[in-house]
Design a protein that fits this description.
Blueprint: H1 2-19, E1 32-33, E2 36-37, E3 41-43, E4 52-54, H2 62-69, H3 77-87, H4 98-102, H5 105-108, E5 118-120, E6 125-127, H6 129-141, H7 151-162, H8 178-190, H9 200-204, E7 211-212, E8 215-216, E9 227-229, E10 234-236, H10 238-248, H11 259-271, E11 281-283
Parallel strand pairs: 9-11
Antiparallel strand pairs: 1-2, 3-4, 5-6, 7-8, 9-10
Length: 284
């Protein structure tokens, strides 16, 4: 039964993907946000399967691209505003806020998020912005860690990443054992799963630039996350999107921040090396 689903599913994907090749080309536009030019095309790092890296922004409809470029219209900016309130709000038994230690995020967080995930020596595993927030809340504020994808977690993550708007993504794989997690993430990226027998690479590499139903397949870059998705009318975290893609292959998906998804985040983030942080990006 699995093989039948795999053949039918992959056949359907390829049939749609090859039906509209000319209409599926990414645009050749420039993205400028608040007067700052974003890098939406860049040369790939050594060992990358692509020669040129393309932001998902280039694959979206004109209306969606315009929405991201206009900070007054971008619905994701509501989460940035909410995140600013949380940044300055006292929480926990120690009577501290994020600002108590880090002052003005526009100064202290500028460019920081572009270098995550990082190696966490205490946990002996990679840590992303969400997990770094939780670590600070528990250890430095005496507050509880956020439950996955709570509105406050998404807002604060969006706010912190927004301080790196325009900064090129750069993950330092020399930290700790991060390289082995990259290796594991790469294996996961190319492993077919589910009844449809798809891997991440099935859509975002083998069929990048093509259409699947009405969706234009991008390279699957992570530089815009958390991202405001018009389909969901909500801010969507990277691990939420990972789990959604895995669900779409009709496979069981891992827990958020599991070893599997953290390894995948390390690898997928590296695949976007040199692209600008666009958070909050807008996607369909």
């Amino acid at each position: 039964m699995r093989n039948r689903y795999a053949i039918v599913g992959l056949g359907a994907l390829l049939a749609v993907a090859t039906a509209l090749p000319a209409a599926a080309e990414p645009v050749d536009d420039e993205l400028v946000i608040d007067g700052q030019a974003m890098t939406v095309r860049t040369a790939a790092p050594e060992g990358h399967p692509f020669d040129e890296l393309l932001s998902g922004w280039l694959f979206r409809e004109a209306e969606t691209r315009e929405l991201e470029a206009d900070s007054f219209q971008n619905p994701g900016m509501l989460y940035v505003d909410r995140g600013a309130d949380i940044w300055n709000a006292v929480d926990g038994t120690m009577g501290k806020s994020c600002a108590s230690c880090h002052d003005d995020a526009a100064d202290t967080m500028k460019g920081i998020a572009a270098n995550y995930p990082k190696w966490d020596a205490d946990a002996k595993r990679p840590i992303n912005i969400e997990l770094q927030i939780d670590k600070c809340r528990v250890e430095n504020m005496g507050a509880e860690a956020y439950k996955f994808d709570t509105p406050d977690q998404k807002a604060l993550t969006t706010y912190i990443k927004h301080q790196s708007l325009g900064t090129p993504v750069a993950v330092d794989l020399s930290q700790g054992d991060l390289q082995s997690w990259w290796d594991r993430g790469k294996d996961i990226y190319y492993t077919r799963t589910g009844q449809l027998n798809f891997a991440c690479a099935s859509c975002h590499e083998a069929n990048s630039g093509q259409y699947i139903r009405a969706d234009h397949l991008s390279q699957g870059q992570a530089n815009g996350f958390p991202t405001y998705r018009l389909k969901q009318a909500d801010m969507v975290s990277l691990h939420n999107r990972f789990r959604g893609c895995i669900r779409d292959t009709r496979a069981e998906f891992p827990k958020a921040f599991s070893d599997e998804l953290m390894a995948l985040e390390v690898y997928v983030t590296w695949r976007g090396t040199g692209l600008s942080v666009e958070t909050p990006a807008v996607r369909q």
